[in-house]
Amino acid sequence: MQRIYLDHSATTPIDKKVLKTMLPYLQDKFGNPSSIHQIGREAMDGVNTARAQVASFLNSKPDEIVFTSGSTESNNLAIKGLVESLLQRQDLNSRHLFHIITSTIEHHAVLESYKELKEGRIEVTYIPVQQNGVVDYKKVKNAIRDNTVLVSIMYVNNEVGAIQPISEIGRIIKKINKDKAKNKNTNHSPKIYFHTDATQAVNFLDCDTQKLNVDLLSFSGHKIYGPKGVGVLFVKDGTPIVSLQKGGHQENNLRSGTLNVPGIVGLGQAIALLEKSVVAKNNKKIGKLRDMLIAGIQKNIPDCVFNIDTQIAVPSHAHISFLGTEGESILLALDAYGIAVSTGSACSAKDLQASHVLLAMDINKEKAHNSIRFSLGKNNTTEEVKKVLKVLPPIVQRFRKISPLYNK
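-> structure tokens emitted (408 positions)
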């Protein structure tokens, strides 16, 4: 049976060039990069090459790159590592609440991090999104207080693909920090640091950290046709952060543990494949396939709600509510045809509660449960989209016939 993969937001297949680059480090170049003998140095050479590749892509310095196990760890280290560092530096006699700003549509790796921060020491403001799934950067600006130390807004939402105004927010924060430095009367007011979870952005958008004006940026290898189990946290020079786990002193004392050399090398190669011309070509191809899918659904399936405006989203995403159905039922029916889609964030696929992202976009619970996320990738074809458009309409029609919620 032909398998059609339309769930690239959950994970991506590893690129053959990436796998080829990794294989020597799974075989002959197996050394521990902390070892000083030749086999260890060979492994470290691979790590250093990958670090340089990532730094070049992010327009940063190699020593600003920290390798982790993935975006979840990177997000935890960025948020909790920064706040813990600031708490440790704070004068015991003048302790005050630190204020953090985030959005209501962040990944659970970010939202759950705030829950572990010390109660009574941290305040969190959750900025609501507009109905189109985009944060209003003016609301972020208006939420900033004298005690704000961190703003964390994702670059692209994982469920609907909405692109967030990261560069605009970065410019606002940069100006505020600059004004603070000039005004001696605000010396008591801490610097504001800016973090973005770029996990869903790296494949599609410019992630130049200097243009974005971010202090912290996180992403994962397996979302960019690289291996699972490896990620990156960019930490701008001068950003205070402490390690969350103790052990060796790898990664500038920020992430203890023997480095995952094959994974790091693979991530570096995956990044190296993201040349601007290639990204532009892939974006155009993926966008055309996505538009073809949407047009076919609009033509052949009535009573659908398209939950994201494609003009403000990355080209991979189509998020659609099929009224009078259950998204999970459609997912399983498509799976029987070898077609893989999603009903929401893969990290919470076992949770049948309505998506917090869709609810934040003012989409009601019923429509949230009706929804399917299609996320296309660079290897998808026109023939695959045609196959989906052939099998999907009768599936929806079949479920609507037996649904007590569909009366048309």
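The two ends are 34 Å apart (CA to CA).
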